[in-house]
Amino acid sequence: MALKVRGLFGTIFVLSLLLSVAACRQTVTQEVVEGGEIFYPGCVVPDEILERDGIDSFFVCMEIPDSVFSFMKGRSYKEGCTVSRNDLRYLIVLHRNLEGQAVVGELVVNKKISADILEIMRELYEASYPIEQMRLVDYYEGNDEQSMAANNSSAFNWRTQTGSSAKISKHATGMAIDINPLYNPYYRFPYVNETVSPGGDLYMDRMWEFPFKIDEDEDCYRIFTEHGFKWGGSWNSLRDYQHFEK
Ligand SMILES: [Zn+2]
Q1: Structural domain range at position 45
Q2: Ligand 1 (single-atom ion) residues, CB below 5 Å
Q3: Separation of 142 CA from ligand 1 center, angstroms?
Q4: Of the candidates 108, 128, 106, which has an alpha carbon nearest to the alpha carbon of residue 24?
């Protein structure tokens, strides 16, 4: 009987592994090969593998690979972009989702903050800080509104500042990152009749508690500011709760 139960759990474990790997093959940017398994961004990594092999191979920084750069061109790397490919870095990271699962994430950031971001992401992961999704904004055709509405955390995107058609955003140089943007909106004072990103005012009341909320009492704020980043949630002329920049 005990043998049968172990066999059953073993079969379920192998099946769940195969299913998670298969599910992740649908949207490919870069992959991590660990212990003979292949994991793509968006993929859940079973804790058994992380306990066995550690997490180092899931926190890597590299020059922008050809496959990623061709995906970025015309999306986040729009025509007229003055930031060179050599100034940007592609990161693979792990983050925890709300269910506590380890998920492979990916980011493009300026090389000046790439070591910082890698360290910050590792600290957030070790603190089990929940991040719902961390995929390149290129999966949303470089459209920030769509990426935010999907609660996608991202960094580099050649674009103007939210609410401005002229000023270049810190995201355009890869020096800023947005975390859980759906729950941490952007708005200007007074916000009545002003554009609120990503739309709706459900999460603008910061007095009540809800998942993914960034404020000064939790790990996301603490870890980013310890690394010298500024938080958009403490600005005076506007509030950008999702935003950290250097
Ligand atoms: Zn931002």
Answers
A1: 26-245
A2: 176, 178, 243
A3: 14
A4: 106
